[in-house]
Amino acid sequence: MIEKYKKIPLLTKLLVAMVIGILLGVIFGEKINVIKPFGTIFLNLLKMAALPLIVVNLISGIAQLDDPKIFGRVGVKIMFYYACTTVIAITLGIVMGSILQPGKGFVLQGEYDQAIATIPSLGDTIINLIPSNIFASLSAGQFDQIVVFSAFVGIAVLFVKPEDRAVIKRGVDSLANLFNRLVGIIMGYAPIGICALMACTVGTYGPQLGGFLAKYLGASYTCVLVQIVIYGILLTVFGKCNPFWFLKKASPLMVTALGTSSSLACVPVGIECADSMDVPRSVSGFTVPLGSQVNKDGNGMMLAISFLFAAQAVGAPVTMDMIIRAILISLILTTGAGGVPGGGIVTIAIVVDTFGLPLEVVGIISGIFALIDMVYTMMNCLGDLVGTYIVAQSEKRHIKKA
Prior knowledge:
- There is one protein chain.
- Helix content is about 75%, strand content about 0%.
- It is built from 18 helices and no strands.
- By secondary structure, the protein is an all-alpha fold.
- The protein has a single domain, classed as Proton glutamate symport protein (Orthogonal Bundle).
- Helix 9 packs across helix 11 and helix 12 packs antiparallel against helix 13.
- About 5% of the residues have low confidence.
- The longest helix is centred in the N-terminal third of the chain and has 33 residues.
C-alpha cells in the first residue's frame, strides 16, 4: 500500500487532503483544533527550508546568468511586472469594492486596540530593504533584507575571476540541490499538514460567514478570480502558453498557499513548479524569492477593499483624490511586506487610520482574516510564478536552462 501511495501524484494527494480538511472543519467545528499542531509542524518545516533555499538559489540563479547584462534585463523586467500587476490588483479591488459595496448598511461593533504604525516613506521603504548587519537579519528572519543581500552576492559572483566563479558556482549549485532534496522530503508530509491547516481554518471561522461579512468575502473572492483571468491573458499574450496548462502545473503551489497562507513558506514549492515548466533556475531562483517579498497583489487588493469597506460602513464620501492616495499608500505598504500568515492585519489598520476611518472595521475583518488571507496568498504566489514564466520566455534566446 505504501508503494501505491507513493505513485499517486502530489497534486492529487494535496487536493484530497484539502477536501478532507474542509469536511473535518465543517463536521467538528472548533473542536478540530486539536489537530492544529500537525499543520503548524508543516508550516515550520517549510519555513525552516525556505531561508537556506532562498539564499543558495538566489546566488546560484544569478551566477548562472554569466552576463551581468542578462541579470539587469531580468531584474528590470520582473520588477516592472510586479509593479504593474500590483497596481492592477489595487485598482481592481477599488472598482469591485465600489460595485459590490460590502460595507453598505453594515452596523459597526467591536474594538481594535492594536497600536497603529506610521506610513513609511518611499525612501524609508528602500532603506529598510538593505541590511546593515546580515547576521542580525538572518537571526531575526528579515527575509526581504536576506533577499537583497543574496542578490548582491550573486551579482558579485558575476564579476570575480572565471576560475573562482566556477568554484563558487559548483558549491552553491550543490547546496541548492541539497536543499531542494530537503524540500522534497518535507513535501512528503504536505498532505497531512494541508489537511490539518484547512480543517482548523474552516472549523474556527466557518460560523462567521453570514450577513455582511459574506459580502466582504464575495468581493474579495470575485477580485481574485478576475485577477487570475488577467494572469491568464498575460500568459497568453506575453508567455505564449495555454493558461489551463499553466494552472495545472501551478496547482501544487496554489493548494500549498491556500493551506499555509504564507508566501514565504511557498517559495520552495514555487521553484519546483517553475522547474516542471522548464523555467531555468537562473530565472526562478531569483524571481520567485524576490516575488515572495515585493510582489503582493493580494495584499494590495485586500487593502483597497478594506478601505472601501470602512468608508461605506460609516457613509464617508470617497473622492478620486482619496482613491489615488489609497493606491499609492497600498503600493508602498505591500513592498517588502513579510510573507507570513496574518501580516496584513497591521497594514489594514494603517490604511484605515490614515483616512480617519473607524478602526472597529479592522476588528471585524480580523474575525475572517484567515479566510481572505489564504486566497490572497494564493494569488500572490501565482502572480510570482506567472511573472517568472513570462520573463523566462522573453529571455529564452539568452539563457540556457540551468
